[in-house]
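Exam revision sheet. Question 4 asks you to relate a sequence to its structure. Input first:
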Amino acid sequence: MKSNSQVLKSVISLSVFVVFVVIFYFLIGQDKTELPSQLIDRPAPVFKVSDLLQEDLIHTQEDFKGKITLLNVWASWCPSCYSEHPFWKNYAENKDIVLVGLNYRDKKQKALKFLREQGNYYDWNLFDQNGRLGIEFGVYGAPETFLIDPKGKVRYRHVGVVSPEVYQNIFLPLIDKIKKGF
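Answer key, C-alpha cells:
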C-alpha cells in the first residue's frame, strides 16, 4: 500500500508530464517563420537612417510610400544571409516591387565587403549599425523580410530565409493581393 506522500508525488509527476505534453502539442504545429508582429497592417515605424553606400543620403519611412517594398534584414555575420542572398537577384527582377536591404547590427566595412563579394541586388540599403531600427521593426535576428504596401503599412513578416518556394508561395500571392487593392 502506498503512503500519502507517494500518491502525492505520483499525482504531481503525472500533472507535470501532462502540462509538458499539452505545451508540446500546441507548439509543434506552429510555423516558426510567422512570428506575431505588432506592425502587421500598421504603418512602418518612423525612422531616419543613412544609406549604407551613400552616408549623406538619409532614408525615412516615407520612402516606402507609393510602391510595394520588400525590406530584407541582413548582415555579414549571418550565415543564413549568405545562402539566401543569391536568390535576391531573381526577386529583384520583379518590377512590381522595390527591394530594400536593412543591414542590421553590422560593421560598415564588413557589410560593404559582403555586397561587393555577394552582389548588391537591393535598390537601396538602410544602415542600422546599432540595431535601433531593427528594434522598431521587432527584429529577432537576420534574415527577416517585411512586405510593405504602397501606403507604407507592414503587411507581412517572414522570419528566416526567403527561398524560391517561400517567395513563390507566400510573397507573390500577397504582392498580387496588394496590387489588386486588398
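Marking note for examiners. The CA atoms of residues 45 and 136 lie 6 Å apart.
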